[in-house]
Backbone:
C-alpha cells in the first residue's frame, strides 16, 4: 500500500490526496487510542472550550494525515518550499569547529526538514526508529542520497549511543528527538504548558559531557507546499538548564501550531 501511495503521489495533486484521506479521520478518532489525549491537550493544557477542543482534535488528526502524505509525496519527488526562521544560529554552528547536537520533537514534520538542510560542512547523523517498513527506509535513503545525512537506527543493545558519541567527537552533528522518555528512569521533570512533564535527560547530558552546543529544529506546515523551518539555539550550563531551554522553546512552537502536536498519549502523566 505504501508503494502504491508513493506511485500515486507522483501524479495526484496534494489537495486531492488530502481530500481522499479526510474520510478516514473519523475512523481513527473513534477506534484510535489518541482521541482522549488529544482532547485533553486542547481542553486542559491550552484551555479551549469543549466544542473548540473537539474541532481542534479533528484538525489535529487531519494535520497528521497531511504530514504523512507529504512524507510519501517527498519520496515521489514532490518539492516543498521552506522558509527559515533562526537560520543564523544554525549557520553559526556550521561555521565553527566541533560538532553539536540537533534536537527534534514529535511536532510538525521533522523528516522533511532533513531533506531541506544542506550541510556540506558537517555530516548530520540522525537517530531514527529502526522498526519502520522497508518502503519508508528506502524512501528515506533515496532522499538522503547526495546529501550529507546518515541514518543511525535505534538498537536494542544501545550501540547507537556510542555511535552518536563518536559523531560528536569527530566534529559532526548528532540529531535526536528530545520530547519522549520511552520509560527511561533518567528524565527531567519540567513545567510545560501549565503542568509538569518529564523530558529525557540523555540528549542534554550527552551535550554537557561532550561540551558541545545544542539547537532545536522544527519543520511546521503552513500551506500545501510550504513549511517553516524554526531553529532555536539552546542555552544552559547544566543538563537541566538545557532541558528547560528546550521545553520553553517547544512550548512556544506548540502554542503557535497547536494542531501539529503529535504526542497522542497522556504526555503529562507518563509513568
Residues:
Amino acid at each position: 500500500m505504501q508503494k502504491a501511495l508513493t506511485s500515486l503521489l507522483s501524479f495526484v495533486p496534494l489537495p486531492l490526496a488530502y481530500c481522499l484521506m479526510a474520510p478516514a479521520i473519523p475512523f481513527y478518532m473513534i477506534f484510535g487510542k489518541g482521541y482522549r489525549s488529544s482532547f485533553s491537550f486542547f481542553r486542559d493544557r491550552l484551555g479551549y472550550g469543549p466544542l473548540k477542543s473537539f474541532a481542534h482534535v479533528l484538525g489535529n488528526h487531519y494535520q497528521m494525515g497531511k504530514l504523512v502524505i507529504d512524507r510519501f509525496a517527498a519520496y515521489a519527488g514532490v518539492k516543498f518550499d521552506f522558509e527559515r526562521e533562526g537560520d543564523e544560529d544554525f549557520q553559526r554552528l556550521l561555521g565553527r569547529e566541533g560538532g553539536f547536537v540537533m534536537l527534534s520533537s514529535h511536532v510538525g514534520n521533522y523528516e522533511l526538514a532533513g531533506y531541506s538542510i544542506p550541510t556540506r560542512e558537517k555530516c548530520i547523523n540522525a537517530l531514527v526508529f529502526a522498526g519502520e517498513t522497508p518502503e519508508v527506509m528506502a524512501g528515506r535513503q533515496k532522499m538522503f542520497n547526495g546529501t550529507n545525512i546518515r541514518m543511525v537506527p535505534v538498537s536494542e543493545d544501545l550501540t547507537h549511543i556510542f555511535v552518536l558519541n563518536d559523531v560528536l567527537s569527530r566534529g559532526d552533528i548528532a540529531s535526536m528527538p528530545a520530547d519522549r522518555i520511552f520509560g527511561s528512569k533518567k528524565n527531567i521533570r519540567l513545567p510545560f504548558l501549565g503542568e509538569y512533564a518529564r523530558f529525557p535527560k540523555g540528549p542534554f547530558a550527552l551535550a554537557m559531557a561532550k561540551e558541545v552546543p545544542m539547537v532545536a529544529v522544527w519543520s511546521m506546515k503552513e500551506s500545501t507546499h510550504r513549511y517553516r523551518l524554526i531553529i532555536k539555539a539552546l542555552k544552559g550550563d547544566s543538563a537541566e538548564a538545557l532541558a528547560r531551554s528546550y521545553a520553553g522553546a517547544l512550548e512556544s512552537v506548540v502554542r503557535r501550531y497547536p494542531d501539529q502536536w503529535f504526542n497522542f498519549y497522556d504526555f503529562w502523566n507518563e509513568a
